[in-house]
Amino acid sequence: MINQKFTELLSEKLSGEISAGDDQEFMAMISSNEDYKLEYESLKVYFQQEGETNENINLIFQQIKERINARGTKPVRRSFTPWYRIAAVFILGLGTFTAYKYFATTNDTTQNQEIVWKKAITSDRQKSTLVLSDGSKITLNAGSEIKYPASFTGRNREVYLSGEAFFDVAKDHSHPFIVQTKTISVKVLGTAFDVKSYEDELLTETTLLRGKVEITLHKNPEKHILLKPTEKFTLTHPVNSSAEKLNGDIYSITPMTYYDKHDKNAILETSWMNNKLLFKNETFSSLSLRLARWYGVNFVFRSEKLKDYKFTGEYEKESLTEALKALQLITPFEYKIQGKTIYLYSVK
């Protein structure tokens, strides 16, 4: 006679819904009955396999039947357990199990479905603002490119940046927002921050205005760096005694820079958002890269020592010639404009 209690407990065990008390009873039953134990072991293997779906259930049935037939040489006392009993137990347990697998598979399918990617690209002297499907707002600086999905799916909201952009991220604690650059990833839940990572620069910067971000270096993914509001993270290659070295890269965390300490809106790192180019004690080498994107030109240094000259100033609507002449008043140098290339020389 078939033990209905064992059948019910076996179904609950295989589907993962057995209570602690019933589990003790079930384990006692298979410990004292070799037939029960064999049936349980036969079915357990298939319920634990990953990736099984309704489409290959017939194959599973066939494999189980082959296992049962292979044990046909055992004593006749096994004959009281026909195939229909195994099938019935399997189907009964499969109810909850299949439901779980369906939703899990559906979830994975949603996450792994082909993503439709979009790109936004700005040329020199151009900025662009876009709103993502989650409501996050991105302002792209000149000479930048961002790749983002038409619609966010899966656990994370992920975008890829080359250049500079300011992010005002919509809050969604269940789906972190991640900005990927060539050297770091910046993970946030909802905040406002600036990320700068141009291909032609040997540094990457993240400046946090509000909220909290977590930075991970691609070369050292185990290390997580947390930024607080008004802090700036800078990753660069040259050795700097005031910075911390990490796998060949150098990073530092400093306060973000105010052009005027009395004006809390005059933030150097985000001044481009207000159509201003602010610089404070910045090397000519670094400033030339910003000027190149600001005016859509290229700078060529004919004197290496010029690269180390430092400047402080503010540009808004000045022409290229006006900007260069203003710099000459701070530190003398000569220049020659040929098309879109500006050659810089030391004063003879």
From TrEMBL:
Residue ranges of domain FecR protein in the record: 122-214
Domain Protein FecR C-terminal: 276-344
InterPro entries hit by this protein: FecR, FecR_C, Ferrdict_sens_TM
One Gene Ontology molecular-function label: sigma factor antagonist activity
Tree of life domain: Bacteria
Descriptive protein name: Ferric-dicitrate binding protein FerR (Iron transport regulator)
